[in-house]
Amino acid sequence: MKLFRNAYLWLAGSFTTDMKAILVHNGVIESIMHEPVSSVPSYAQVIDLEGAYLYPGFIDTHTHSFEGGLYSLGVDLSNVSCIDEVLARLHEQYKNSDDIIFAWQFDEQSIREQRFPSMNELDSVVPDKPLVLRRIDGHSCVLNSYARKQLSGLDPVSEILRAQDNDIAVHHFHKMLKPDAILNAYNRAAEIAVKGGFTGIHTMVGDAMQSIGHYSLLSQHISSFKVTYTLYPQSFNLKAALDAGARRIGGCILADGSIGSHTAALFQPYYGTDNSGSLYHDDSFWRKFIGDAHKHNLQVGVHCIGDKAIKQINVVYQQLADSTGKDLRHQLIHCELTDDALVSDISKSGAVPVMQPNFDFLWGGDNGFYSKQLGVARSSNMNRLASLTRSGVKVCGSSDWYITPLDAVQSIRAAMQHHNVNERLSHAQAVDIYTRNAAWLSHEENSRGTISEGYNADFCILSSPIDNFVLKPSVKMVVKQGSTVYETD
Q: CB of 462 within 8 A of CB of 487?
């Protein structure tokens, strides 16, 4: 038994005005008590939180945790300024590694040359080991010659691999890793997650085609991690998912691509071009796949960024909602570009947008990336957190990590400080998309997501409330089912 005391508690959408205590038994909240506590069982461990702010444990509902954990051990290109700096970092890794070299967080638009490094440039610093360099959005990559020679059937013209070629290349090298390396990546991801304030993260496992990858391996070790992993067989293989005992399928199975790679499917072309991206599958494909999954009671999550792709998937969800009445809570992953009519359609279908507030933080605004790709007017319809919430839609929050940081405070603040003031969430709404709504998404609303008696003792304890915009609150402690999984020194 444990007593967490002297903390302000997040109850019913706000903090208590006086400090309280929580008694935890067997990982569950047994009671919420007033301070000063009149009597404490002699055998209880007392943890004094010294006036900190205790939120429910935050849950990130869409991550690439395997890739994020793996790549965090590789080459981070998030703050490079030129090609020479890219090459220097790659060569340093080459000298100190005997394995496949993964580089990530590369954004060609943020460096001086405004381009990817060429294959010849990559070969000059990594000549005889596989090298995979991924764009920040994960939808494009480049390989060195050594890696490229191990693959066949790729686009022979372009060195930059996009769409299916990107997925084929990346998953080829992921599959070469041994079980110990895979588990090491997930352990690394869990460490990053708890440091960022999370007690739970949803993650995809599989190649987004027919393989569910290391789903069984991860399932066997699921209780050993510092965070609660909610697993998605990232595959179109329904039989494999069902045989593995999965309750959901998808995550990043793709209806379209990304804004940055100009592969997200739009009703109107990208600004200054005649390219509108493309749908990766036709309507009949999705009707059959989602319909079959729905028939077998599998929750479905589909990546759809452009308005044309969101519409395509939401229509199928609407048809199933009208005809079956099942409460499976199918997901629109990302759901970035939505006009008013599409917001209304989503509210009718009951679909769940799983969205990333950091996308607006990084790329929103009149002079931001979205405006440059779509034009200012259309960019105002990006990441419509508040409009969807006002329409009665249960929005869920995520980082899409490794694409944006696995940082609960930053993500919640981004939702509250959206560039479009009409899309800003309140403090309570922003917390909800990472707690109550997130628990509801996985059908765990009766055990997770709130500070209530009988619920899991999952807490994120901060130095100050997240709505304090002067200083960023620090994560003092993270508790999962009563056990401290992270604590600052």
A: no
Query: Each residue of 295-349: pLDDT tens digit?
Result: 999 999 999 999 999 999 999 999 999 888 899 999 999 999 999 999 999 999 9
- Ordered structural domains, the chain, with CATH: 2-57+453-487 (2.30.40.10), 67-174 (3.10.310.70), 179-441 (3.20.20.140)
Residues recorded for the chain: 489
pTM: 0.91
Q: In the chain, count H helices and then E strands.
A: 18, 21
Other beta carbons within 10 angstroms of residue 139's beta carbon come to 25
The set of residues, in sequence order, having a beta carbon less than 8 Å from that of 92 and lying 6+ positions away, is: none
**Contact assessment for residue 41 and residue 1, using Cβ atoms and an 8 Å cutoff:** yes
For residues 428, 227, 135 and 79, what is the CA-based torsion angle, rounded to 10 degrees? 80
Secondary structure (3-state) at 311: helix
| Complete edge-to-edge strand list for the sheet that includes strand 198-205 | 58-63, 198-205, 228-233
pLDDT in tens, 235-279: 999 999 999 999 999 999 999 999 988 999 999 999 999 999 999
Question: Do strands 2-11 and 396-397 pair parallel, antiparallel, or not at all (unpaired)?
Answer: unpaired
Residue 68 in contact with residue 191, Cβ under 8 Å? no
